[in-house]
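seq as requested:
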Amino acid sequence: MATVEEIRQNADHRSMVRKIQKAYAFLLPTTAPLPTSLYTTGSLTDFSATPGAISVGLVSPDGWTFAREIETEDINALGYGSPVRTDITTVPRSVTVTALESNRKEIQELKYGTVITETQDAATGEVVFDEPDLPNSKEYRLIVVGADGPADEEWIMGKGFPAVKLTGTGEEVWGQEGAVSQELTFSVFSDDETGAPVRHYLGGTGAVKYKDVLGYTQAV
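struct tokens:
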């Protein structure tokens, strides 16, 4: 008879416990297609080469937060204390990150929902621009890629969003502690063609090494 410990050891896999040690992200224009793979001829794609790409740059150690809420509608029946039916009505999704390179022109334009046309003074380095009363935020595609593990056992995890729009900014704090930073919250929308709001990517040498544990069907 199998013991609890034997069953546990066969069922648990430490190799599946991952964390994100490094990450990068790019906002892409909606004219650029959402990639079907993070790889080009076996190497990770450098999205900075995409025309109009915006690097989010350095972010706080909290990293990226991908929120997914499930909202439901319950049907109750006479004489029953629990719902007799529950339907999923909406699944709002959002992405939140705290950008540390908050003074970059691209991040300022993103935050304020405007195009900054003012030039920088060559002698003083000064740039002066007015914040609009109401932001006119654009939609972008968003690619976030994270990595974990050494080169021979590296996991590459990614999320691709076909349409995001900045809908929230946190407080901007100027103080003795901590860097001047900007929290950014993006609302996620579904793709017009596929209807999918998020595309998930998983690969790397770790995924190859532990393919049997992962459980996915291997391509022929």
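The chain is about 10% helix and 35% strand.
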